[in-house]
Amino acid sequence: MTLKVDTPAPVGRTGPARSPGHRGSGRGGNGLARFDLRATPYFLVSPYFLLFTLFGLFPLGYTFWVSLHDWELAGDKTFLGIDNYVELIADGSFWNAVVNTVGIFVIATIPQLVMALLLANALNKRIRGRLFFRLGILLPLVTSVVAVAVVFTQLYGRDYGMINWFLGLFGVEAIEWQNQSWSAWIAIATMIDWRWTGYNAIILLAAMQTIPKDLYEAASLDGASPRRQFWQITVPMLRPTLIFVVFTSTIGGLTLFAEPVMFEGNPTMAGGATGQYQTVAMFIVKEGFRDFDMGYASAAAWMLFALILVGILINYSITRRIGGKK
Amino acid sequence: MTAIQSRRRPAGPASAANRIWDAGPLTKVVLTFALVLSAFPIYYMFVMATRSNDEALDTPPPLLPGGNLGDNVNRLLEAEQAYFATGLINSIIISTTVTVSVVLISTLAGFAFAKLKFRGSKILLGSILLTMMVPLQQMGIVPLYEMMVTLGWTGQIQAVILPFLVNGFGVFMMTQYTSQAVPDELVEAARVDGASTMRIYANVILPAVRPGMAVLALLTFMQNWNEFLWPSIVLNPDNPVVQTSIAALNQAHGTDYVMLFTGTAASVLPLVIVFVAFGRQIVGGLMEGAVKA
C-alpha cells in the first residue's frame, strides 16, 4: 500500500525531554543485552500475531476448507470439491446480491467523494469557528449504524416519514421506499453517505493542509482561477489520500450489512420481497445461518473477497488517473 | 503540523495572494448546510425520544423536545424481547475489554515496527497491511461460529470479545504514530545508557505516544460499540449487545417509534458525550494519522 504523501510530512511532536533511567542500570552483561536486542522485538509483536493467527488467519483458511464441502454444523460433512462455487456462479440470487451491493456502492460512493472533496476545500478556508465546523461534520461518525438506520428508515417511512412529507410539498406522491430497488438503494446510500462523508472530508482536509501554499501563490500570479487551482493543484496533490479513501470505502461498501438489515426491519436477511436490496454479506448470513448451508455460505464469502479485490483494482486504476494531466 | 500552526497565528494584513484563503459567502453557506445535515438526524433522534407516539406522527413532524422522556425510558427498560439494560452493560464490558487489549498490543507491536531493527519486520508489517484488505468478519463467520460452539461459548459475551482482541489497523496506526512521535536519537541515547528494550518502551515510548493511544482507544471503542453482524449471530436475544437489542426492539415494537428512538438515543449518547468532550483531540488525531498514513 503506497499511501505516502508526496509533500514533506509535517514534523511530529518531539518526545519527552526526560532521559530514561540512570546510567548503567538494567545492564545485564553483554550476552543478555545482545539477546535483548535480538529477541525482544519478536516478543513485542508476538501477541498480535498469535491472536491474529487464531482468530483471523485460521478462520480464513478454514472457511476455504468448509467451502469445499456440503457442511452442516452438527451433521454430515461431505466433500464436494468446487461444486459450491459452480453452483454459486449459476445462482441468480447470488448475482442479484452482487448487483445490489455494487449498485448501492456506486450510488453511495461517487457523490460521497465529490461532497467530501468540496467540504474539505471549504474547511480549508479561513473561517471563524473552524473547530466547531470540523466537529460538526464529523459528528455522524460517532452514531452507530443501527441507530442511523432506525432514524433514516423512519425518515423514509411511507405515510409519516419526513422525506415523503417534504417531497409532498412539491407534489410528489408518497413513495414506498422499500418497494423498488432504485428507491431502496438510494435510501441505503444516503445512510452510508450521511455517516461517512464528514469523516472522509476530514481525512482529505488533513492532506490538503500539507500542500505547500506557494504552489497556489504561483498559480495566482499566473492568473489561474480558484476553480482551476482546485482541479489542477489540489486534486492531483491529493491523489495518495484519495486512493486511501477509495480503498477503505470499497471494503466498507462491498461488505455492507447493518444498514439494509435494519432497513428491512426483520432478521430474515431476504433484503425485501424480491431481494431488491439484499447485499452479499446478507446473502452469506442467510445461507449459513438461516438455511444452515455453511459450505455454500463459505464459498460465497470467498467470492466476496474476490469481489473486493476486483473492486480495489478497478477503483485504484480509476483514482490513479484523477488529475493525471498536470 | 506547520500548516495548522501558521493558520492559527493572528491574521496580519492579508496580502492579495493570501486572500483566496478567506472563506467567501458560498463557503459559509455550504459549511452551515453540511453542519445542519450532519446534526439534524441526531437532534431528531433526541427530540423523538421526548415525544409521544401521537405527536411523532404529526405533519409536519415535531422539531422541538416534548415532555415524554421519562415514560419512554420506562417502557424501553421494560420492553420485552429487547433486554436493553443487559445489552447496554454487555456493550460497555465488551468495548472496554477489547479497547484495552487493542491499544496495548498495538502499542507494543508499533514500537517494535517503528523503532527496532529485526529480521523479517518489513514482511511482517506488510502482511498486516495485506490482511487489512480481507473482510475477516464475513470470511471468518462460519469457522468462528464453530469454534464458539465447540468451546460452548455461544450466547456468552466472551464470544464477542475474543475475535476482536487484535486489529491490523491499530498496529498500523501505532507504527505510524510511534515513528513520528519519537526521534530515533532518543531511543539510541537510552540504548547507550544501557536501558533494556522494555525499559525504553516504558520510559521513552509510552509517554510520547499517549495521544496516539487515546485516539486509537476512542476509535476502537466506537467500532466495537457499533459491532452488529457478529453479535447478531453468536449471541442469543436474551443476552444481547446494545445494537442487537435495538434491532430486536425494532422488530418487536417497530410501531412504538418514540421508544425505539429512545433506545437509539441512549445507545448514541455515551459516544456523543465523549466526542464533545474530546473533540479537539479526536479531530487532531484523525488528521495527524491521515497525513502520516
UniProtKB/TrEMBL annotation, chain A:
<keyword id="KW-0472">Membrane</keyword>
<dbReference type="InterPro" id="IPR051393">
    <property type="entry name" value="ABC_transporter_permease"/>
</dbReference>
<dbReference type="GO" id="GO:0005886">
    <property type="term" value="C:plasma membrane"/>
</dbReference>
<dbReference type="InterPro" id="IPR000515">
    <property type="entry name" value="MetI-like"/>
</dbReference>
<feature type="region of interest" description="Disordered">
    <location>
        <begin position="1"/>
        <end position="27"/>
    </location>
</feature>
<feature type="transmembrane region" description="Helical">
    <location>
        <begin position="182"/>
        <end position="207"/>
    </location>
</feature>
<keyword id="KW-0813">Transport</keyword>
<dbReference type="InterPro" id="IPR035906">
    <property type="entry name" value="MetI-like_sf"/>
</dbReference>
<keyword id="KW-0812">Transmembrane</keyword>
<feature type="transmembrane region" description="Helical">
    <location>
        <begin position="42"/>
        <end position="65"/>
    </location>
</feature>
<comment type="similarity">
    <text>Belongs to the binding-protein-dependent transport system permease family.</text>
</comment>
<feature type="transmembrane region" description="Helical">
    <location>
        <begin position="299"/>
        <end position="318"/>
    </location>
</feature>
<keyword id="KW-1133">Transmembrane helix</keyword>
<feature type="transmembrane region" description="Helical">
    <location>
        <begin position="131"/>
        <end position="156"/>
    </location>
</feature>
<feature type="transmembrane region" description="Helical">
    <location>
        <begin position="94"/>
        <end position="119"/>
    </location>
</feature>
<protein>
    <submittedName>
        <fullName>Cellobiose transport system permease protein</fullName>
    </submittedName>
</protein>
<feature type="domain" description="ABC transmembrane type-1">
    <location>
        <begin position="98"/>
        <end position="315"/>
    </location>
</feature>
<feature type="transmembrane region" description="Helical">
    <location>
        <begin position="237"/>
        <end position="258"/>
    </location>
</feature>
<keyword id="KW-1003">Cell membrane</keyword>
<dbReference type="GO" id="GO:0055085">
    <property type="term" value="P:transmembrane transport"/>
</dbReference>
<dbReference type="Pfam" id="PF00528">
    <property type="entry name" value="BPD_transp_1"/>
</dbReference>
Automatic annotation (TrEMBL), chain B:
<dbReference type="InterPro" id="IPR000515">
    <property type="entry name" value="MetI-like"/>
</dbReference>
<dbReference type="Pfam" id="PF00528">
    <property type="entry name" value="BPD_transp_1"/>
</dbReference>
<keyword id="KW-1003">Cell membrane</keyword>
<feature type="transmembrane region" description="Helical">
    <location>
        <begin position="123"/>
        <end position="145"/>
    </location>
</feature>
<feature type="transmembrane region" description="Helical">
    <location>
        <begin position="82"/>
        <end position="111"/>
    </location>
</feature>
<feature type="domain" description="ABC transmembrane type-1">
    <location>
        <begin position="88"/>
        <end position="278"/>
    </location>
</feature>
<feature type="transmembrane region" description="Helical">
    <location>
        <begin position="157"/>
        <end position="179"/>
    </location>
</feature>
<feature type="transmembrane region" description="Helical">
    <location>
        <begin position="200"/>
        <end position="222"/>
    </location>
</feature>
<keyword id="KW-1133">Transmembrane helix</keyword>
<keyword id="KW-0812">Transmembrane</keyword>
<dbReference type="GO" id="GO:0055085">
    <property type="term" value="P:transmembrane transport"/>
</dbReference>
<keyword id="KW-0472">Membrane</keyword>
<feature type="transmembrane region" description="Helical">
    <location>
        <begin position="257"/>
        <end position="278"/>
    </location>
</feature>
<keyword id="KW-0813">Transport</keyword>
<dbReference type="InterPro" id="IPR035906">
    <property type="entry name" value="MetI-like_sf"/>
</dbReference>
<protein>
    <submittedName>
        <fullName>Cellobiose transport system permease protein</fullName>
    </submittedName>
</protein>
<comment type="similarity">
    <text>Belongs to the binding-protein-dependent transport system permease family.</text>
</comment>
<dbReference type="GO" id="GO:0005886">
    <property type="term" value="C:plasma membrane"/>
</dbReference>
<feature type="transmembrane region" description="Helical">
    <location>
        <begin position="29"/>
        <end position="47"/>
    </location>
</feature>
